[in-house]
Specification:
Low-confidence stretches: none
Oligomer: single chain
Distance between the termini: 61 Å
Shape: globular
Mean pLDDT: 96
Helix content: 40-55%
Strand order of the largest sheet: 5-3-2-6-7-8
Number of strands: 8
């Protein structure tokens, strides 16, 4: 059988400077300054205690997220939590890295998709696609991870990134915090660029998965939190946890927490295949299965704009110095 493949060679790209952005660097929420809705519960209070206990004992706090954490203008909270020694590993999908990268060089991100998809211009931004692919191709050659490759690229081209102080993956690099990105090929706008090299993307993201496994292997006594990633985050975590236990690492005394808008009701009770919530991956892969032999898992229903600032405030109230 002869398979057909579509060449990307003649794809037309556009300068990002002509784009209208829905999220801007000048509207980022500032920890301790920007007003926000408050989220709280007894379990949320206990989560904060467990985070502080984990860090006091030198145990990891792994933060996994979907792209809407960045799109909700919360980057500075992540940076503060990393600089303050709370987050020891930050993980995301490809879109997380793209929005973060665009804020760093362009000062804005999040285009208007409904209109851009009509003429095939959606995602065809020259600087985003070229620079990120260049970074990943160099990283693949040098054996770097995906997050590391992007951070080193920013470091090597500071003139292109006037907002690198607000860039999560770059500040993670500067703080010595591992930042990993777990990529599904064909899901990100940089996969549309004429110079895309999927082998380089796969190689660098593969390095990041090894690094994620290394962090999860040390998770006993630590905390894993997931903010809004409904597929990649839960799947990557479950596989990393299985690998760590297969290799004999004692990862049973753990705390897990999932934050999302999906109301699961009583998420601790067993449900059958006829219940749509059965197929919601964070319920199984984060909240329930990982703590079946010890530890505790929670599901919190809250908007990121409330939960993340409230967590920051809660940690401060309990004595953490940002």
């Amino acid at each position: 059988m002869e398979y057909k493949e579509l060449s990307f060679e003649k794809i037309q790209t556009y300068p990002a400077s002509i784009r209208q952005n829905l999220v801007r660097i000048d509207t980022l929420a500032m920890p301790g300054e920007t007003p926000h809705e408050t989220f709280d519960s007894p379990e949320f209070d206990e989560l904060a205690d467990r985070i502080l206990e984990a860090r006091a004992n030198g145990r990891p706090v792994i933060w996994s997220q979907g792209a809407h954490v960045i799109k909700n203008s919360l980057s500075m909270y992540l940076i503060a939590l990393m600089k303050g020694g709370i987050i020891t590993h930050i993980a995301g999908n490809g879109a997380c890295s793209i929005h973060d990268f665009e804020l760093a060089y362009l000062g804005g991100t999040s285009e208007n998709v409904p209109t851009a998809i009509e003429d095939g211009s959606f995602g065809m931004w020259e600087e985003t696609g070229r620079w990120m692919n260049e970074a990943l191709q160099e990283g693949a050659e040098r054996g770097w991870g995906y997050g590391e490759s992007l951070a080193r690229y920013v470091d090597a081209h500071p003139e292109r990134f006037p907002h690198k102080d607000q860039c999560v993956f770059y500040q993670a690099y500067r703080c010595g915090v591992t930042a990993t990105y777990h990529i599904a090929l064909g899901t990100d706008i940089i996969h549309q660029h004429p110079i895309v090299d999927f082998a380089a993307i796969g190689k660098t993201s593969g390095v990041d998965f090894h690094r994620m496994c290394a962090s999860v292997a040390e998770l006993d006594g630590g905390v894993y939190m997931n903010f809004g990633s409904s597929v990649l985050g839960p799947e990557v975590f479950l596989k990393a946890l299985s690998i760590s236990r297969n290799l004999g690492y004692p990862t049973y005394h753990i705390t897990t927490a999932n934050f999302d808008l999906v109301d699961l009701g009583d998420y601790t009770k067993k449900i059958g295949y006829d219940d749509p919530n059965y197929y919601y991956r964070p319920r199984k892969n984060i909240v329930n299965r990982p703590v079946s032999k010890g530890g505790v898992g929670w599901h919190f229903v809250a908007d990121h704009k409330a939960s993340i600032p409230s967590l920051y405030d809660k940690l401060r109230e309990k004595g953490w110095n940002a």
